[in-house]
Amino acid sequence: ELAFLSDNLKHTPWPFGLTPCNSLDSLMLHSSPPGWIQVYHPVNRARQFDIDVTGLNVVSRPQQVHLNYMHVTHVAVSHDGQWMITCESRHDKREAFRELRLRFWSYKPSNKSYEQIMCVDRPHRAVRMISFSPVVTDPMFATD
Questions:
Q1: Can you name the residues that pair with 23 across neighbouring β-strands?
Q2: Predicted confidence band at 100 (pLDDT cuts at 50, 70, 90)?
Q3: Are 104 and 83 in contact (CB under 8 A)?
Q4: Which among 50, 74, 101, 106 could bridge 87 via Cys, Cβ 3.0 to 4.6 Å?
Q5: Is-contact 108 92, C-beta < 8 A?
Q6: What b/e sequence results for 119-136 when a residue is b if at least 16 CB atoms lie within 10 Å of its CB, and e otherwise?
């Protein structure tokens, strides 16, 4: 059921729609402020926890200049839920500058959340998708 919801909501205003996390019986979706992911349990109708992916979005605007926030564009979770990969980007047209990052996360049962273990700046010119191998014993991933 989680996969059905995810597939049917990919074309929403949120780039990664709903991403199923089968090991937690949950869905991952956009949260607020930008750059956060919410882990939501649809059966219990409860938020389990939030993940601050970008860690960059709490800034003041003293000159009332529009800020271009980092947005989470892709999320993938391994079949066993142990690993998560996120992609985030920001495009500042005023400076012709584009940031792009892949972050690798590991689930920590003691914290009941994911912890970042690695960040790769500018892994590609663009990322169109992230996916894990469906083989449970070999959590390989691919980007495009």
A1: none
A2: confident
A3: yes
A4: 74
A5: no
A6: eeeeeeeebeebebeeee
> CA-to-CA distance for 65 and 60, rounded, in angstroms?
10
Q: Which long-range contacts (CB under 8 A, 24 or more apart) does 132-141 make?
A: 132/76, 132/77, 132/78, 132/79, 132/83, 132/85, 134/79, 135/79, 136/79, 136/80, 139/78, 139/79, 139/80, 139/82, 139/83, 141/76, 141/78, 141/83, 141/85
Taking all residues of the chain, what is their mean pLDDT, rounded to a whole number? Answer: 77
Spatial separation of the C-alpha atoms in residues 135 and 61, rounded to whole Å: 46
